Amino acid sequence: MFSSLSDRLSATFKGLRGKGRLSEADVDATVREIRRALLDADVALPVVRQFAAVVRERALSSEVSGALNPAQQVVKIVHEELVGVLGGETRRLRFAKTPPTVIMLAGLQGAGKTTLAGKLGRWLRDQGHTPLLVAADLQRPNAVTQLQVVGERAGVAVFAPEPGNGVGDPVDVARRGVASARERHHDVVVVDTAGRLGVDAEMMQQAADIRSATSPDEVLFVVDAMIGQDAVTTAQAFLEGVELTGVVLSKLDGDARGGAALSVASVTGRPVMFASTGEGLADFEVFHPDRMASRILDMGDVLTLIEQAEKAFDAETSQDLAQRFASGEDFTLDDFLVQMQGLRNMGSIKKMLGMLPGMGELREQLESFDEREIDRIEAIVRSMTPAERRAPKILNGSRRARIARGSGRTVTDVNQLLDRFADAQTMMRSMRKGGGMPGMGGLPG
Ligand code: GDP
């Protein structure tokens, strides 16, 4: 699932590698590619339009980060927007204050509701709950038996209508199921409801009636990720008919393009909460929009690197430094040291650099970069007094000799460091004049 979308997006980002600056034309070309990739993956048109517009706007507005080059920023923007399309924050199940919590499943026939009931049941049981599955799908022959079989496999109790007496009333079964859970102290009830092959008024009315009869805490819309664009129209119909609170994507293990499933959260405004990834009881997971977005972008490692780079530079250096430079303060040896320490984080993850889009020159520098160099720099700077760090020009010959002794380095090492610092300081000053943000000036090596 999503593999061709992944490939397309990765190829697009690769095209940005090595670009130091993105022109408007670069951004437009990139956004066009992203748009095509999403459409080809079956993502709904209104979702694609909105997505492309926001990515373009954000990529063009200079959201400045001292740590990232423009290409990385585009990746970051696309990732963030993708997380948004998938529902934003991970949405956990809401449990009722007074049990039982009622979870109602709705969706078309074959969507995977009954299978999901078993998976949810087992998952809840594993977390110490005492769930009860209620078989209120009296439409499909065998649905009740199927739920009983699934419940048994999951080790979860099932409430089913007594056989015989013709077709029972699903609304009544659902109501009695919830009452039974209350009596027997089950703290969660999962109500499996009937679906049809297509949306129809009678089914929707039945679902709405079950909803009224059981006052569910969650109404989960189960949608087969393989049904393409129909997923969106079906979701809209269910949203209007039964007021959903969340979405479950099923059959995410299939090889369909899956983009329609990606549109459902955005179109309904309801978060994707779970993903079903196979026929087995364990093929089930809580849905994390951010992880799914990373998986789709196929760039988990790169995103980790971007995060770390930001952590290393944003908090400690960029913002703080930017503010101080703006107020006219100078770049000191302490700042230089902080920058170098930031590089240590970069150094420890340099093995990932091969995957990075557009690290260009920095990548080459980092690849030949020896972390021990930072230790040496640190030792030298730490052997200086605070006054010396603030104003290195007072460092005469005897001070330099003292620092060399204190740090276990030679005077030549101290001199080299000071030369390098002077270069970085010049660069910082020229950046202030040019209004740019301080980056990673003065790389060692
Ligand atoms: P319902 O009509 O909505 O209750 O759908 P079912 O739970 O009966 O599922 C319909 C079919 O899809 C069954 O054959 C299930 O085994 C299968 N199925 C359900 N969930 C998944 C899934 O996540 N992946 C795959 N590959 N098959 C699934």
TrEMBL record:
It is an enzyme of class 3 (hydrolase). GTP binds at residues 107-114, 192-196, 250-253. It is found in: Cytoplasm. The chain holds residues 1 to 445 of 540 of the full protein. Coiled coil: none annotated. Signal peptide: none annotated. Its main location: cytoplasm. This is Signal recognition particle protein. Involved in targeting and insertion of nascent membrane proteins into the cytoplasmic membrane. Binds to the hydrophobic signal sequence of the ribosome-nascent chain (RNC) as it emerges from the ribosomes. The SRP-RNC complex is then targeted to the cytoplasmic membrane where it interacts with the SRP receptor FtsY. Composed of three domains: the N-terminal N domain, which is responsible for interactions with the ribosome, the central G domain, which binds GTP, and the C-terminal M domain, which binds the RNA and the signal sequence of the RNC. It comes from the Bacteria. Its EC number is 3.6.5.4. The keyword GTP-binding applies. Residues 271-284 form the SRP54-type proteins GTP-binding domain. It catalyses: GTP + H2O = GDP + phosphate + H(+). It comes from Pseudokineococcus basanitobsidens. Part of the signal recognition particle protein translocation system, which is composed of SRP and FtsY. Belongs to the GTP-binding SRP family. SRP54 subfamily. Keywords: Cytoplasm, GTP-binding, Hydrolase, Nucleotide-binding, Ribonucleoprotein, RNA-binding, Signal recognition particle. The gene is ffh.
